[in-house]
Design a protein that fits this description.
The strands form six sheets. A five-stranded mixed beta sheet has the order 3-25-24-23-22, with no helix packed on it. Helix content is 7%, strand content 46%. It contains three helices and 26 strands. It has one domain: TolB, C-terminal domain (Neuraminidase, 6 Propeller), CATH 2.120.10.30. The radius of gyration is 21 Å and the shape is globular. Strand 9 and strand 10 form a beta hairpin. The chain starts with 8 loop residues before the first helix and ends in a 7-residue tail after the last strand. It is mostly beta strands and 361 residues long. It holds the Pfam family FBA_3.
Length: 361
């Protein structure tokens, strides 16, 4: 099985169909876990292309010290996801992705490598008998507990009333897959301008507001307990308003810690914040001067790779930039394999440190 754990995920999907014996071996939970462990040591770039109201999945090896204007070959994963679920809720988590249709109010979890997807049951809040006046769905996120190896979906609700929030959680590995209510001892409102949410080492981080202050809500996926981190007073947040001045703060994984990118390329500098001590709400600020690049204002901050390079991507161009913090250099990397979309209306979304997961739904 060790040999199979080293081959690309799309090859495993084909090998499962060779014979019943191969299918049995390659579907065993121990092999799935072995493959995920090996895949975590070779993270990839993940691209979703939204075109014709469908979502197409691509992946490529994550470059390490590439030459300028080099090319990566992106592999297409299976058939595109249907029109209804072309909205991706955050970055993939441990190989799985969460999608939502905003018209029919359904959510699915997909596995791009296997081509499978699972429709989630309706939220308790959406059922008339469970509806509480004034409550609304504030955000839905996918998290992963690396200790018990379980995926959980968190639905955050909010209310204008000053009372503790009641949220909902669904465990993917549970037999009936039902939503459960959980309580939070403090009241907050979702603030999507303070990060889109990210799961790092079993903790979901989400932007929120408590009173007039913007904070980061921390949800421990294993214990299902909530906490929060105050933003640094020097972060670009307008505390006098109910929102931020522009979409400034982006969450990312900084070597296993929560990182925040502040600002845009128009500032001509890269401002990063890293949490040093969540208990004492202590942050560390790093500032870098960005080198001049053509068309760079069309690009946005994506995140940091496990090797410490910053990725800047565009929603329309099939190339991206890698910024090396130590050398203060930027490298353009082209994406090959998505040529069919060049003359079609499309949007491309880039994610770092994607791991292939053979988990079956």
């Amino acid at each position: 099985m060790d040999i199979f754990s080293r081959v690309p995920g799309e090859s495993i999907a084909r090998f499962r169909c060779v014979s019943k014996f191969w299918g049995y071996i390659l579907r065993r939970p121990d092999f799935t876990e072995l493959y995920l462990t090996k895949s975590s040591t070779r993270p990839r770039l993940f691209f979703t292309v939204k075109a014709d109201y469908k979502l197409f999945f691509y992946s490529s090896p994550q470059p390490q010290n590439p030459d300028d204007n080099s090319t990566l070959v992106a592999t297409c994963y299976h058939a595109p996801l249907s029109t209804y679920f072309s909205s991706l809720l955050g970055a993939p988590v441990c190989g799985l992705a969460l999608h939502q249709d905003y018209i029919i109010h359904e959510r699915v979890i997909s596995n791009p490598i296997t081509g499978e997807y699972l429709t989630l049951p309706k939220l308790l809040l959406e059922m008339e008998s469970s509806y509480t006046a004034g409550e609304k769905i504030a955000g839905i996120s996918l998290g992963y507990d690396p200790i018990n190896k379980r995926f959980k979906v968190l639905c955050m609700t909010s209310s204008l009333e000053e009372r503790p929030n009641t949220h909902q959680v669904l465990t993917l590995e549970s037999g009936k897959r039902l939503w459960r209510k959980i309580k939070c001892k403090f009241h907050f409102m979702r603030n999507k301008r303070v990060g889109d949410g990210i799961c790092i080492n079993g903790v979901l981080y989400l932007g929120a507001k408590m009173g007039e202050s913007s904070v980061i809500v921390c949800f421990d996926v294993r214990s299902e307990k909530f906490g929060f981190i105050n933003l640094d007073k020097d972060m670009a947040v307008d505390y006098s308003d109910s929102d931020l001045c522009g979409n400034y703060l982006t969450f990312f994984n900084y070597k296993g810690k929560l990182g925040i990118h502040e600002g845009t390329y128009e500032d001509e500098e890269l401002v990063l914040w890293v949490i040093e001590d969540a208990q004492s709400h202590k942050w560390f600020k790093q500032t870098y001067e960005l080198p001049p690049l053509d068309d760079f204002r069309d690009f946005h901050f994506v995140g940091m790779t496990c090797t410490g390079e910053i990725v800047w991507s565009s929603y329309k161009h099939f190339w991206f930039y890698l910024y090396n913090l130590e050398r203060n250099t930027s490298t353009r990397v082209n994406i090959q394999g998505c040529e069919e979309f060049e003359h079609r209306s499309h949007s491309i979304y880039t994610f770092v440190d994607y791991v292939e997961n053979l988990k079956l739904m």
